[in-house]
């Protein structure tokens, strides 16, 4: 499993809130971070390694 992301992939906000999350990219396994705001607003993210885009 990949390491935990320390910043939101979409916004660059540090993941310090308990509601933030980190998960591996479905395509390449790179750590993807999501802040609570970006998750709630369904802000799109793009994997910096493979270009996979998620909601």
Keywords:
two-stranded antiparallel sheet, two-stranded antiparallel ribbon, 55 residues, 1 helix, mainly beta, 4 strands
List the helices and strands and how they pair.
Elements: E1 21-24, E2 31-34, H1 36-40, E3 45-46, E4 53-54
Structural overview:
The protein has 55 residues and is mainly beta. The chain has one domain (1-47). It has one helix and four strands. Strands 1-2 form a two-stranded antiparallel ribbon. The protein has a two-stranded antiparallel sheet with strand order 3-4. β3 and β4 (53-54) form a beta hairpin. The longest helix has 5 residues, at 36-40. The chain is globular. The mean pLDDT is 94.
Low-confidence stretches: none
* Distance linking N and C termini: 21 Å
Q: How many domains?
A: 1
Strand order in space, largest sheet: 1-2
Query: How much is the average pLDDT?
Result: 94
Pairing-aware structural class of the strands and helices? mainly beta
Instruction: Tell me, briefly, the overall form.
Output: globular
Strand content: 15-25%
Largest sheet: 2 strands, antiparallel
Q: Helix fraction?
A: under 10%
Rounded to an integer in angstroms, the radius of gyration calculated over CA atoms is 10 Å
Sequence of secondary-structure elements: EEHEE
How many DSSP-defined strands? 4
Number of helices: 1
């Amino acid at each position: 499993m990949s390491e935990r992301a320390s910043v939101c992939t979409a916004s660059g906000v540090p993941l310090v809130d308990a509601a933030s999350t980190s998960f591996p990219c479905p395509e390449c396994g790179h750590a993807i971070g999501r802040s609570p705001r970006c998750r709630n607003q369904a802000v799109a993210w793009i994997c910096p390694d493979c270009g996979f885009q998620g909601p």
